[in-house]
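Project outcomes to date are best conveyed with an example. Our students and postdoctoral researchers have been running inverse folding experiments weekly, and each run begins with a structure described purely in tokens. The record below, which covers 167 residues, was selected by the lab manager from last quarter's runs and is presented without edits.
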């Protein structure tokens, strides 16, 4: 509620993600299992193959971040990350097609670092990718309009019930 009262916007969400996700990637590098790696590799392949389909790409993009959260082995981070992802989704934020290829490639590099158990590199690559979002579409004024938190609540309810409304 404090985010809504304070007019939290996409920038607020990106700043939170930039603070949380590099640590999450570093932890994943140290704690990941082969099963995590397989899921991450499959997700990256799906990201590459679905670049032209915005809805499917963004679904896989959220899945990628949730998989990293799970691989981190930190239950609190794994609980926070889906909420941040749902906030981004509720804000209606979409990556343009020209950017999706680069994002998929950057995610592949993050997985490489996690596979090599290189926590520093995983953290740095995640940070670079998240901070790179700030540079996207600065001319899009709607991107920094306040998030409609009722939309976040609706998405969160779907998530809790095991549904993903983007499918």
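After processing, the design step wrote out the following sequence:
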């Amino acid at each position: 509620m404090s985010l809504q009262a304070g007019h939290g916007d996409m920038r607020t969400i990106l700043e939170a993600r930039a603070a949380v996700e590099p640590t999450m990637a570093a932890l994943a590098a140290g704690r990941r299992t082969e099963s995590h790696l397989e899921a991450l590799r499959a997700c990256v392949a799906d990201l590459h193959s679905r670049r032209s389909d915005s809805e499917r790409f963004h679904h896989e993009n959220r899945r990628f971040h949730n998989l990293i959260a799970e691989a981190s082995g930190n239950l609190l981070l794994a609980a926070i990350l889906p909420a941040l992802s749902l906030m981004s989704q509720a804000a209606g934020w979409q990556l343009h097609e020209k950017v999706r290829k680069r994002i998929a490639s950057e995610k592949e590099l993050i997985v490489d670092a996690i596979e090599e158990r290189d926590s520093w590199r995983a953290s740095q690559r995640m940070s670079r990718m998240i901070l790179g979002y700030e540079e996207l579409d600065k001319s899009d004024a709607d991107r920094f309009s306040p998030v409609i938190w009722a939309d976040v609540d609706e998405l969160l309810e779907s998530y809790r019930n095991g549904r993903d409304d983007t499918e």
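Residues 25 and 66 are 11 Å apart (CA to CA). The chain is about 75% helix and 0% strand. The training component of this project remains on track.
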